[in-house]
Amino acid sequence: GAGVSQSPSNKVTEKGKDVELRCDPISGHTALYWYRQSLGQGLEFLIYFQGNSAPDKSGLPSDRFSAERTGGSVSTLTIQRTQQEDSAVYLCASTGGGSTDTQYFGPGTRLTVL
Amino acid sequence: AQSVTQPDIHITVSEGASLELRCNYSYGATPYLFWYVQSPGQGLQLLLKYFSGDTLVQGIKGFEAEFKRSQSSFNLRKPSVHWSDAAEYFCAVGAAGNNRKLIWGLGTSLAVNP
């Protein structure tokens, strides 16, 4: 596609519910990242996928967070039993996978947990 | 510890005035440095990046940045600001050879007065 797309653009959920956020990377990009941007904070790395390698999950804040990438393309970030502190904008980025490649970002999903 | 500091949370300039946004980093390895811009309702867009070579790098929209290793800085500059430059600006650093886990500053919000 022309760019990274994310859906939904906005998600409001109740505390304790599970949510799934979707990311469609740029076609042909092998690397995919998830970040979280909380109000007044910088971007926080969550997880990184590169090709068929095991993902780098070191940024996931708790075991309620998980992500998968099917077929090396679309990725889904799942948050189980959401908490109010999970409210943030979740950003996805993709690159060609080279060490100097630029990360191209999607517009983000704004998650609000009531 | 690895970190990026953007000392100015908010800056206001008049249209046509010059601009300098500060970025200081602390990073153990040879850094790759980035400036991204985030406009309201838009995704993060890369303005410019430094990997090696000439320490003065040119970016899009008339922006430039200078890498000063001795000062651990990568300040962003523009000689004449336009009203459309009003946005949030983020500095980020990553390791040479590893484009994962960019470390991000908290951002500088730029307002432009007519």
How does this structure look, described?
The complex is a heterodimer of chains A (114) and B (114). In chain A, the strands form 2 sheets. In chain A, strands 2, 4, 5, 8, 9 and 10 form a 6-stranded mixed beta sheet that branches. A 4-stranded antiparallel beta sheet of chain A has the order 1-3-7-6, with no helix packed on it. With 114 residues, chain A is mainly beta. Chain A has strands at 5-7, 10-13, 19-24, 31-37, 43-50, 65-69, 75-79, 88-95, 104-105, 109-113. Chain A is built from no helices and 10 strands. The model of chain A has no long low-confidence stretch (mean pLDDT 91). Chain B has 114 residues and is an all-beta fold. Helix content of chain B is 0%, strand content 57%. In chain B, the strands form 3 sheets. In chain B, strands 2, 5, 6, 10, 11 and 12 form a 6-stranded mixed beta sheet that branches. In chain B, strands 3-9-8-7 form a 4-stranded antiparallel beta sheet, with no helix packed on it. In chain B, strands 1-4 form a two-stranded antiparallel sheet. In chain B, 35% of the residues are buried. Chain A binds chain B through residues 3-4, 31, 33, 40-45, 48, 50, 56, 58-59, 91, 93, 95, 98-108, and chain B through 4, 32, 34, 36, 41-46, 49, 51, 90, 92, 96-102, 104-107.
